[in-house]
Amino acid sequence: MGLVYSSRDGAMCPRCERPKAGCVCARVSQAAAEAKAESRDGIVRVGRETKGRKGAGVTVVHGVPLGAKELAELAKALKKRCGTGGTVRDGVIELQGEQRDQVMAELERRGYAVRRSGG
């Protein structure tokens, strides 16, 4: 853990360890968010992952161009449509089990350009 407070500079940023007044973390994270937004190509990708889940497969939905609140609402609708559990993590919708066909059909019905990713 780095320096938290300095009598000379006041409060310090825990990430870049600079004084709060000269912190660059906010500018760097904002630039990264803008770059990530530009890299979206408008195609929603639906895939299946098992990595880190002890072999249990989940359906993942990447690249949905929505805010956090709207993404959570879409995840809720997809979970209801598939009759399964799931969550939203880091802008990615995760649904339990093999649900790719149902998810793709629902997203296409809602007007998204959808592609299957992975195997």
Q: Bin the strand percentage.
A: 15-25%
Tell me the name of the CATH class of the largest domain.
Alpha Beta
Q: Mind summarizing the main beta sheet? A: 5 strands, mixed
Number of helices: 3
In which range does the helix fraction lie?
25-40%
Description:
This protein is of the alpha+beta class and 119 residues long. It folds into 2 domains: 32 residues, no CATH class; 76 residues, 2-Layer Sandwich (Translation Initiation Factor Eif1), CATH 3.30.780. Helices cover 34% and strands 24% of the residues. The protein has 3 helices and 7 strands, in the order ββαββαββαβ. The strands form 2 sheets. Strands 5-6-4-3-7 form a 5-stranded mixed β-sheet, with helices on one face. A two-stranded antiparallel sheet has the order 1-2. β3 and β4 form a beta hairpin.
Secondary structure topology:
Blueprint: E1 5-6, E2 10-11, H1 25-39, E3 43-49, E4 58-62, H2 68-82, E5 86-89, E6 92-96, H3 100-109, E7 113-116
Parallel strand pairs: 3-7
Antiparallel strand pairs: 1-2, 3-4, 4-6, 5-6
Task: Give descriptors for this structure.
119 residues; alpha+beta; Translation Initiation Factor Eif1; 2 domains; five-stranded mixed β-sheet; two-stranded antiparallel sheet; 3 helices; elongated
Give a brief outline of the structure.
With 119 residues, the protein is an alpha+beta fold. It has helices at residues 25-39, 68-82, 100-109, and strands at residues 5-6, 10-11, 43-49, 58-62, 86-89, 92-96, 113-116.
